[in-house]
Amino acid sequence: MANEGVDRRRRRFLVAATSVVGGAGVVAVATPFLASWKPSARAQAAGAPVEINVSQIEPGQRISVAWRGRPVWVVRRTPEMLELLPQIRDRLRDPDSEIATQQPTYAQNEHRSIRPDILVLIGICTHLGCSPAFRPEIGAPEVGSDWPGGWLCACHGSRFDMAGRVYRNVPAALNLQVPPYSFVSDDLIIVGEDADGGTA
Q1: How does pLDDT run across 28-46, given as a tens digit for each residue?
Q2: Given this model, what pLDDT does residue 128 score?
Q3: Which residues are the active-site residues?
Q4: Using the 8-state DSSP alphabet, how is residue 43 labeled?
Q5: Is 160 helix (H, G, I), strand (E, B) or coil?
């Protein structure tokens, strides 16, 4: 017989050892390959929701944070700023925020926000992607005596009110975009997470 004198225990040991080493080799090769499919920590952080404590924002002040590589502005509007919003409707292109892609449904209102005093916007002009300057002063000299406060894009002159709504007869055709966000508490918002708990 051909198998005479063969140590079966040794054969089983060698087969088992070869299988273990082969399996470890497959795992060693597959792990980095599968890991390459997963987004890097930097890429994950770039798209992750951002927490903002709004209690430190003074009335009339705007802060800027980064979310998905874009500036996000958070403004604590004063009662005076809110009072002016309905008074300029006839000067705006889309005063009722009817273009649904420009804000979540919970921000499709006169003040374009969940809470009237806290405004959250993506700080990119909807014309060609410049970042408009925050000009909250009423009657700012370079804008005009009838200026109620808002944003002025220095690139091509587009103007936006204190709700991010675009004026008529300017290059930008759309309101500034409101990102998905939600309130975790009275003082904490999360940009990138909808009020219903979904993420964008």
Answers
A1: 776 766 665 555 555 545 5
A2: 87
A3: 156
A4: H
A5: strand
Q: What is the pLDDT of residues 129-171, one digit of tens each?
A: 899 999 999 888 888 888 999 999 988 889 999 999 999 999 9
The token pair at 95 is: 């005063």
Q: Tell me the β-bridge partners of 139.
A: none
Is residue 4 over pLDDT 90?
Answer: no
Question: φ, ψ for residue 73 (rounded to 5)?
Answer: -100, 140
Do residues 154 and 148 lie in contact, with contact meaning Cβ atoms separated by under 8 Å? no
Amino acid occupying residue 64 = S
Q: How far is CA 38 from the centre of its chain?
A: 21
- φ, ψ of residue 166 to 5 degrees: the values are -80, 145
SS3 breakdown of the chain: % helix, strand, coil, rounded to 5?
30, 20, 50
Helix then strand count (H, E) for the chain reads 3, 9
**CA dihedral over 72, 77, 81, 85, signed as positive or negative:** positive
